[in-house]
């Protein structure tokens, strides 16, 4: 780009109130990232208005919070949407408060329902602004709140103060609580809690989640149970009502899918093993593909966890479970090649170290970025570290192993988790199916 502040096509609020692209623009106050940097992959292609000045800081914050790369991009785009609305409202950065931000989301969702999924990322941007001291306290205008509004406000304060919930959760709670409380509000000005029973709550839930994904349905059910539990604690409904709320079934969008041998080879081939960074990345890829460890387990590995005599690796899995994993020859060789050139701060015991100062241990996000970067170089779009975990599991089964071995290697708490791979390992299942026309 000739202009370092140019970030692509602009997004503004049109005459009909919707957000629309209106061509090229220049965003002042924040230089765009250099070509090829990891910031560039998620930098918005829309005008961010007043938020352009903090966009780089927002990206760094998202990484520090541990958000996945796809989520980072979605939230950066949400920041651009929020910034363009601020331009239309003639708001500066110091003028924004949470209520105004959420009002934008509500109005945009009402006019353009197709924007609702994208707008769900706005509360995370508001949380960033609040935590960095840039979100103004909302002006409190004294009004006579209805019983439903007053009850909703009390519940939201309970979630924020007593449970420590963030802006995003409060926003979702408002979306669930407001229509529910309106159902039991009388025109005379009181809430009829005696109307609330299990059947009524489930009827509301089924209507509220119609057309939404299973994850959104699960979240809505959790929030509704929370509201009813809070109401029961106040003596307004019976204790058992919250327990009777349905639990929507989780639907997997796809089956666990590993990489083929050629894809793993292509991933390794994308690494330049000439220096410390390349050897580090190769060791991480080999370890993930052969042992099926999680990203957090790789990031948490220390020099003290490597037993060269056995040889084995000690990793701490979910729930603090300690796993002792055998060290295959190729994993050991890759680790030796890297550790010989490993550079770290004095006293740093983490195995995998950042490539730039300070030379501290990589975090989970750093490990994820390594796999994502080399997968793209290898032409494998949409491949993240967890795909290598699936690869290790499918290789065990393809080599004649059983589900108990998958459980022990991957550190599953129960065999049921490992049995998920029965749906994708078709070769050993095929002999169990009788031939067509030969049913007993």
From TrEMBL:
Signal peptide: none annotated. Gene3D superfamilies: Intergrase catalytic core. It comes from Arthrobacter methylotrophus. Keywords: DNA recombination. This is Tyrosine-type recombinase/integrase. It holds the Pfam family Phage_integrase. InterPro entries: DNA_brk_join_enz, Integrase-like_cat_sf, Integrase_catalytic, Tyrosine_recombinase_XerCD. Residues 254-434 form the Tyr recombinase domain. The lineage of its organism: Bacteria, Bacillati, Actinomycetota, Actinomycetes, Micrococcales. It comes from the Bacteria.
